[in-house]
Write a structure and sequence with these properties.
Blueprint (H helix, E strand, L loop, with lengths): L1 H7 L5 H44 L5 E5 L2 E5 L2 E10 L2 E5 L4 E6 L6 E2 L4 E5 L2 H36 L5 H33 L2 E3 L4 E3 L9 E2 L11 E6 L4 E8 H13 L7 E6 L7 E8 L9 E8 L11 E7 L4 E7 L3 E4 L2 E7 L5 E12 L2 E6 L7 E4 L11 E4 L9
Parallel strand pairs: 1-23
Antiparallel strand pairs: 1-22, 2-17, 3-12, 3-16, 4-11, 5-7, 5-10, 6-9, 7-8, 9-11, 12-15, 13-14, 13-16, 14-15, 17-21, 18-19, 19-20, 20-21
Length: about 400
Amino acid sequence: MNENADQSEPDSTTAPNRSTRRRTRIRFGAAAAFFAFLAVGATVMHASEQPIQEKVAAPSGPSVLVSAPLQRDVETRLGFLGQFSAIERVELRAQVGGTLTGIHFADGAIVHKGDLLFEIDPVPYQIKLSEATAQLDSAKARLELATRELARAQTLKSTDAGTAENVEQRNAERQAAAAGVDNATAQVRDAKFDLDHCRITAPFTGRIGNHQVSVGNLVAGSRAGSSPTTLLATLVSLDPMYLDFDMSEGDYMAFMRERAKQRNNAADSVDISLSDEVKYTRQGTLNFVDNALDRSSGTIHARAIVSNSDLLLTPGGFARARLAISTPHAALLVPDAAVLQDQSEHIVLTVGSDNVVTPKPVQLGDLRDGLRVIRSGLAPTDKVIIDGLAAARPGSKVTPHAGTIAIADQG
């Protein structure tokens, strides 16, 4: 009985010890979890601080390429847009009327001076010439008879068988007969002129256009052009050719001032680039500047003469003309893409010693070897932004890197 009683009833001193150990284990686990939480939090905070440190170490602004302006000796040039025109141009029209019986060229072909182009039915004019020739022969016969009658009258008068009145009458008849011969001769020349102009020939060598009238049509002609005439075709000369262009008043004044300083013909040399060319491959000579400015446009007309031995140039075609007006002098050049339009002026973005973007207004010259000439506004020591313009803003900071201005030979 006692042994069973001892086994079923726990010892009063053992139970409190077990409870104490259980609470101790719980506190130890909570403390371990707390320190683990602190460790994880510290790791997370350290990881979150890394981007902040990286942001602090990042550059202060966008990267751009900068370079000092390229210094080079260049001459002052003026650029214009010109249009070619033929030195000689003629509208072929008939001077006599009639039926067109022949066309002796291919449309658009090159014809030479004296080549037969059109032919008008000559029969009516041959008849007219025959009639005039017959009248001339008759007039000559009358003159011959009047001459003999005058000689006979003079002989009779010398032998007192004739009178002075008879001599005077015979002399008047001879003069009338001579006038008749002159009139008949003129009619023959007139008829021959008409007959000759039934054949229309090329007045000079050039390229002919398409024919405006077909064979069999009746064409109207006029010697003096006083009445309507029929246009048959047009003919233009090809070599050499004119290049016409207009100068603004400012360009004209600059041209005249520089030209007065030069004692040679260098100011008359014109470089020419065709519409499909990048380089200036041809040269012409300035041979005309008009005597007055056009009041409506404020420009003055000028013209250069250009060789066209390869017959590539065509009247009406466009080309760029470049006129050098001064001797070479020092100038600054930057890429054309580095020049920005700001309302009514042009600016170039530069970077100062504090890496702040500063815009500078500039005066532009022409394009030279793919670069833009800067007339004023830049110093040789300026650092010009040549790449990264889209990210650069005036007044903002950038990270500059050294670049190079390359020359692209454009002629």
